[in-house]
Structure formats: C-alpha cells, structure tokens
C-alpha cells in the first residue's frame, strides 16, 4: 500500500497540476495552465501530495476551493462545522485502483490537520468510478443538484462522510 505526504501547494507543483489532462470522459476535470489557475491553486487551500516514490500523485483542496457554485443555491455549504474536500489524482494514476488508498490517507490527514471528521465532498454525477471509491471509503450520497459550468448545467452529488465508527479504514476520530 502506498503512503502519501501532504504539503501546502507551491508554484512549481501548481503549474504541473494545472497542465494535467484526463481522458475524454473525464476531460471535464481538465484545468488550463493559465496564471489565474495557478494562482487559484496557490490560495492556501490546496495541498500537493507525493507518494512513497516522491512522485506527484495528486492534490487535495479544502474549504471554498472544494465547493461547486450550484451548492450555494441549495444551501449545502451553510454548516460551518463541515469541511469541504476536493481531490484529484494525477492522470497517470487514475483507473488503477489507487483512489481508495489516496482518499483514506487524505481523510486521515484532514482529521489530524483540521481536527474534524465532519467532511463532505461534491462529485459530478456521471463520475461513477469516483462515486464507488468514495462509497467504499465511507461517504454516502446526500443531495443531487445542478451547477452551471460554462454554458452547461451539470448534475452533481453531495456526499458526506459517515459517522465516526462506521468508516472503514479510519481508526482515529476526533
């Protein structure tokens, strides 16, 4: 099993992540490598994640950076005790069974760093691969909603981490 280390985002890693491109059905997650995107990744809410081989494996973001605009309209961000999580794997590590280990490690990092296990995330409804990983690690589907992305309205699913003692793989809860 891989181990991971979490670091506040640097400009070097932000530039690398901003240039990632995913296969067509997941190209929705592509960023552009503009200065604006790199600046967003440097806002203090993003962490780059290295694996045990010291390779860039993914990133996580917390707080407002993890939020989808349509969620504000339906009030899913009104609970200030709930931490919002966003994450992404490097394209070379997707679809290979790495997601659950990465997410489990990310939850443990958040619990230690932010002293909370009240975590939620939002995922595009079409991303069944990610939804299965989230459910396997202990998230449950909550609300469905639409959010505008460019000219389109996309379906999203809010998922919340189960109560403390129900989460597989998570041993310490605060």
From TrEMBL:
Domain of life (superkingdom): Bacteria
Domain N-acetyltransferase stretches: 4-164
Entry keyword set: Acyltransferase, Transferase
InterPro entries: Acyl_CoA_acyltransferase, GNAT_dom
E.C. number(s) listed in UniProt: 2.3.-.-
SUPFAM superfamilies the record matches: Acyl-CoA N-acyltransferases (Nat) (SSF55729)
Protein name as catalogued: GNAT family N-acetyltransferase
Organism encoding this protein: Paenibacillus shunpengii
